[in-house]
Amino acid sequence: MATTMICGAAVAALGAGQAAAQTAAPTDQTEVEEIVVTGSLFRRTDTETPSPVTVMTAQTLQRAGMTTATDAIRSVSADGAGSIGTGFQSGFSAGGSAVSLRGLGVSSTLVLVDGLRSANFPINDDGHNAYVDLNSIPFSLIDRIEVLKDGASSSYGADAIGGVVNLILKKQFEGVSGSAEFGQSQERDARHQRFDLTLGYGDYAEKGWNFYVNGEYQKDGRVSSHSRGFPYNTQDLRPIGGLDNNTADSSLTTATPTAVVVRTTQGDLNNPLSGGVQPFADGTYIDSKGDTQPYSNYTSLGLGTCLAGTYTATTGGSRGVGCKYDLVDLYNQIQPKQERYALNGRLSFKLGENVEGYVAGSYSYDFVSIKNQPRAVRNTQPFGGSANLASTNPGIVLPVWICTSGVNCADPAAAGRRLNPNNPYATTYANDPANGAARLYYLFGDIPAGSDRTNEVYRGTAGLKGDFGGDWNWRVDAVAARDNLKIEQYGYLNIANLLKSINTGSYDFVNPGNNTQAIRDFISPTVTTPSHSTMYSLDASITKELWELPGGTMQLAVGGQVRKEELVNNNQNAKLDTYSLTTSSAFGKHTVTAGYFEVLAPVLDQLEINASGRYDHYSEGFSHFSPKIGAKYTPLRQLAFRGTYSKGFRAPTFAESGARSQYAGFSTFTPPATFQNAHGGLTSAGNTNPYAQAYSLGGGYVGNPDLKPEKSRSFTLGVIAEPTPWLSLTVDYYDVKKSDLIVAGPLLAKARNAYYTGTDVTSACAAVAAVGAGYSCNLVDGIDPLFPTALPRVLIINAPFVNADFSKTAGVDFSATAKANLPFDAKLTSRVEVTHVLKYDLHTSSGVQKYAGTLGPYQLSSGNGTPDWRGNWQNTVEWGRYSLSATAYYVGKIKSVAADQRTSTDCVTANQYATGDKVLGEKFCYIKKFVNVDLNGTAQITDSVQVYGHVGNLFDEKAPVAPGAYASAPNFLTTFHYPGLIGRTFKLGVRFTY
After folding, report:
1. Residue 303: helix, strand or coil by DSSP?
2. Are 50 and 631 in contact (CB under 8 A)?
3. What is the rounded (10 degree) CA torsion for 658, 660, 666, 669?
4. What is the rounded CA–CA span in Å between residue 260 and residue 297?
5. What crossing angle do the helices spanning 761-769 and 748-755 adopt, rounded to 10°?
6. pLDDT of residue 15
7. Threshold 0.85, pTM exceeds
8. 106, 528, 621, 884: which one has the fewest Cβ atoms less than 10 Å from its Cβ?
9. Alpha helices in 75-229, H assignment, sequence order
10. CA angle, corner 573, sides to 568 and 576, nearest 5?
């Protein structure tokens, strides 16, 4: 081992007890603890390897006021695009939390606990990305967190392209320790409670064994959008010069809790889905272009209960009086209710002088309650269901006659036959029910909507390690983990029950408050879906000191792993009987066998070289070898250079490769002019036939067993310096290329357009198939009743997962630590960590999409983009028994464009909020930078008791306005600006150790 070395590679602002400072090897007999640093197999007394590592200790996490592993890990500046926080409440991963190092996605960041894998969250993010839920990891047992910001497939295999997060838990504990804290926001919500207790017995050094048990509990209250006010509670941004995108206070065809109807026809009096395409016109008007247009008078049911007042629509084709609503303010929430607890235990023991072992087990419970806006009556059919089930176009209607059975109610002999009290046209058209149906626009405001998600993780580990011959060290570790997820969805509409309730008149649309809970439960029964994932792994390795080199002892390590993984992500809508409930599912299992090696060669006092490699074989039939080489050169005592070069891979997830896996994604599509002309033609006001207007066109994706792994090439170059004894710093450049990207339907847009080149269904679907293998028509709409000979719409196009495209990302990490003595025996410690993304480009067949500093990649997870600057800075002053820490977090401005959504990144032509509008495009071109500061103070009352207080977002900085952001979070970014939504918070707590 070299007698001089630079310690502590990349010390983060939260980071670490290690400083990037040179320390001489001890000359006295003081024992120096040896540790294994993430990314290496060798035990060493210094924490610096050629790879950049951010280390966060329990002490610095406490000083930052962290209370969850999620908050701690996602505070690292290298966490970027695709990161998932608990505040992200829609999409596939609602309720889960994950980290995305280098912005490469959660499936390209490997999360370990004590260097071992765990089971993945049973639901894949974005329908196909796998990750470990950070909410399942116990926080009170964390000794330190190591974040390896470098490719590490040579050590750990798949998924470590962006880096590795290794949460290292306490190995032994003797005595009693615990904490209790309480808090809330200054708005008196976001109530917070947290408790933990650890009991340990056995002096490991003297008795040769130690056992501890640990329990923790945390509960965080809900925060509504209404409580935070403008602009986080509305899509109407006129007060700041923006658009009024809230149509619930101006458009009669926007679904609200006040039912709106218009008279139309009904082709099948037994079927509420057979309403006519066009409502009956009550008159005509001349539009601004001089064209004659029809208009219809719409009727609002229960109009006398408008709590926010009414509005009158006097222009356009839909006229009448309606109730005003702001649905975001009324129903949305910023923070879900969350409750979690965990139980953990560990037994450490010595079997002899040279053999040690352990057995550990843990159970974690995480409950997340999410509330959404109520469900609308107009929906597309479930993916895979018949187009006849769609209630979007022409829409669902209320019949003239209802009866007890709901069948053949127009027949005078039907039992319980009566005129429909929900249909204001019923009396007039009692003798002509085919022309007296009421097309319905409605949001079920009396039926709460949302989901309760319960995630339980069981994990057990056991291991042995020892040495023999003086220079051989070995270890064996086994882990078994299972993640059980139960999702209870409420507020979704059962199709058959909804239609029956309409035909029987059992649901009161005029006065929804009169509905019984029984009828609400009938229309919207709770849907419970269990899913699970499992992982079993056995690792063994042995290290050997070989021979002496000028810089120290050369070492060799070899090892192997066998790992079994399985996923059962069940379809939440397997019966295709529920509107708007996802049909995504994923299934798969495999066995992975691997062998790996590592060589450490201190060839000179100033030069250390590390080489490693790993070969992984998957039972699906593919294999991959991942090499890595790194070096650290220390020409001066105060200066070192380091660098690495590696290749890695990401294995296809079960959602991507499983033959039984599927998911559907829908987006708005406007048919071409030729199609619109065939269905009524274009006027100056557009096509007034709803069949030819913009609609939701789906892509159906099925797992592809022939996928290859994604591959990566990455390198880092860095400098570590200690110009003075009180200052140390690091600078590291990283560059990652990820190729053979697994993408869903890259030619889907081409396939959509190809369909509309056909003249009939046969030729149109043939054109889709000609686009490429795996593209085909999944579902074609029923014919347009107004133009039955014209080409019908395509509703869903099948598209494959394929390997295509490549991405490049590059940037610079900077960290520094400074220490100074202050008057009155006080000490100052200042740590800063910054990441600057220089480049994040996706190279496709149609060009290069540039994401750095923008909202791209918008289709990745929460769609919060890639800030090109992110950092944190912690300053701690200690004097006697007291300490005060201020931690500042910085996120740079983000351009409100996304190259994967538009063909340009110009603020006018490609603005996510106001595309094509010069004034608004320039006004809302950038989402402003965000800086918030947390303050934490501690007082050591006795040697065993410490009290502390924490003020989050000390200056109550507001989240920057982000109009056009992800639809689930109007006007704000949940990933990077979350503290600015919750506002100033307060926590008081006590810690004790005996």
Report:
1. helix
2. yes
3. 90
4. 10
5. 160
6. 42
7. yes
8. 621
9. 153-156, 204-207, 225-228
10. 135
Read off the pLDDT of each residue in 18-37 and give the average, rounded to a whole number: 44
Q: Where are the alpha helices (DSSP H) in 131-183?
A: 153-156
Which helix (H) or strand (E) covers residue 667, if one does? strand 662-669
Beta bridge partner(s), residue 438? 263, 398
**The pLDDT of residue 289:** 67
Between 746 and 115, the higher pLDDT residue: 115
Residue 499 has phi, psi (to 5 degrees) of -65, -40
Pairing state between β 292-297 and 283-286: antiparallel
Strand 401-402 versus strand 283-286 pairing type: unpaired
Q: What pLDDT digit, counting tens, does each position of 506-551 carry?
A: 999 999 999 999 999 999 999 999 999 999 999 999 999 999 999 9
Alpha helix (H) residue ranges in 756-841: 761-769
Query: Both tokens of residue 177?
Result: 């320790």
3-state SS class at 809: strand
Q: List b or e across 695-713, with b for residues whose CB sees 16 or more CB atoms inside 10 angstroms.
A: bebbbbbbbbeebebbbbb
**Cα angle 453, 457, 458; round to 5:** 150
Residue 890 · residue 906 · CB < 8 Å: no
Instruction: Give yes or no for residue 17 having a pLDDT over 50.
Output: no
Query: pLDDT class for 642, splitting at 50, 70, 90?
Result: very high
Report yes or no: 338 and 367 within 8 Å, Cβ to Cβ. yes
Angle 37-722-151 from CA coordinates, rounded to 5°:
35
pLDDT of residue 688: 61
Distance CA 230, CA 333 (A): 13
Beta bridge partners of 3: none
What token pair was written down for 984? 């100033």
How far is the C-alpha of 795 from the C-alpha of 592, rounded, in Å? 39
Residue entry with tokens 């054109």: 767
Give me the helices (H) in 624-694, please: 654-657, 673-678
Backbone angles phi, psi at 172, to 5 degrees: -140, 155
Least Cα distance to 540 among 470, 614, 464 occurs for 464
User: For 118-127, what is the mean pLDDT?
Assistant: 88
- The per-residue pLDDT for 91 is 65
DSSP sequence for 240-259 = GT--B---TTT-TTS--SS-
CB 795 within 8 A of CB 697: yes
How far is 83 from 89, CA to CA, in rounded Å?
A: 13
Closest CA to 802 of 692, 913, 732, 703: 703
Could you tell me the two tokens for 709?
């792994």
* pLDDT for 840 beyond 80: yes
CA distances 760 to 512, 678, 764, 765, Å, are 44, 12, 6, 9
Is 146 exposed, middle or buried, given 0-12, 13-18 or 19+ CB atoms closer than 10 A?
A: buried
Torsions phi, psi of 389, nearest 5? -90, -10
Worst-scoring range by mean pLDDT, 42-51, 93-102, 562-571? Answer: 42-51
Burial of 831 (0-12, 13-18, 19+ CB in 10 A): buried
Q: What is the dihedral of CA 390, 393, 396, 399, to 10 degrees?
A: -130
pLDDT digits (tens, 9 = 90+) for 438-464: 999 999 999 999 999 999 999 999 999
Q: Which range is least confidently modeled, 32-46, 250-264, 647-661?
A: 32-46
What is the rounded distance in angstroms from the CA atom of residue 317 to the CA atom of residue 248? 17
Q: What is the pLDDT of residues 574-614, one digit of tens each?
A: 999 999 998 899 999 999 999 999 999 999 999 999 999 99
- CA distance linking residue 953 with residue 956, whole number of Å: 5
DSSP reduced 3-state for 513: helix
Which element (helix H / strand E) includes 298? none
Joined together, the tokens standing for residue 397 give 């209607």
| Predicted pLDDT of residue 761 | 93
959-985 confidence digits (pLDDT tens)? 999 987 776 678 999 889 999 999 999
Which pLDDT score, from 0 to 100, does residue 556 have? 96
